[in-house]
């Protein structure tokens, strides 16, 4: 399991030029279609769990527990607040276990009996709530382990991402610093979190789902 630390940014016509100027090397371009799944009552996403299928493989992103050492003050914590951190699980049995745990809790909360057949029924209740294709250009920088992705989604949305992939328990502080340095090189100035593809997709296509996630401070 790894932890993805990521800062999204608004990319514009100058971003490519800036990447070139700071010596970023293009790793290539690829295209993938993502399908995201949840129960009809949004039980996974309301727990900030994002289950998707990409290129035939299942992936689950879950919240990490914040590292106390990150809770510094001032500029450092502002920079850290601009970054998201999610555990990325790609092992199918583990994904199934995590999803089942949520579904089981939901069944128990609603005082349903959770017989294996009912759990199966809940699992079968997972529906695809978002599907879109992304064209991604990836760049690597001198800064070790940092990747910059420029994404263009098929619903007319662009976003940039600076990301570092850490092994679980890896040095989060150093990852945040690398992202901050890279953001500086790219000349990113804003201190507001930038909306990602899913944020934009739900806002445009599923306002009810979007509103629930906003009201629970998931998005
Ligand atoms: C975690 C999450 C979602 C799942 C999609 O995550 P994201 O990293 O935006 O997608 P993508 O395509 O770049 O995945 P990658 O190829 O890097 O693995 S959708 C919403 N969230 C929650 C979330 C959040 N609350 N805030 C921010 C800044 N990002 C994501």
UniProtKB/TrEMBL annotation:
One of its GO terms (cellular component) is cytoplasm. Pfam families: CYTH. Keywords: Acetylation, Cytoplasm, Hydrolase, Magnesium, Metal-binding. The keyword Metal-binding applies. Its EC number is 3.6.1.28. Residues 2-205 form the CYTH domain. The keyword Metal-binding applies. Its cofactor is Mg(2+). InterPro entries: CYTH-like_dom_sf, CYTH_domain, THTPA, ThTPase_euk. One of its GO terms (molecular function) is magnesium ion binding. It catalyses: thiamine triphosphate + H2O = thiamine diphosphate + phosphate + H(+). It is found in: Cytoplasm. One of its GO terms (biological process) is thiamine metabolic process. It is an enzyme of class 3 (hydrolase). Gene3D superfamilies: Hypothetical Protein Pfu-838710-001 (2.40.320.10). Monomer. Belongs to the ThTPase family. Hydrolase highly specific for thiamine triphosphate (ThTP). This is Thiamine-triphosphatase.
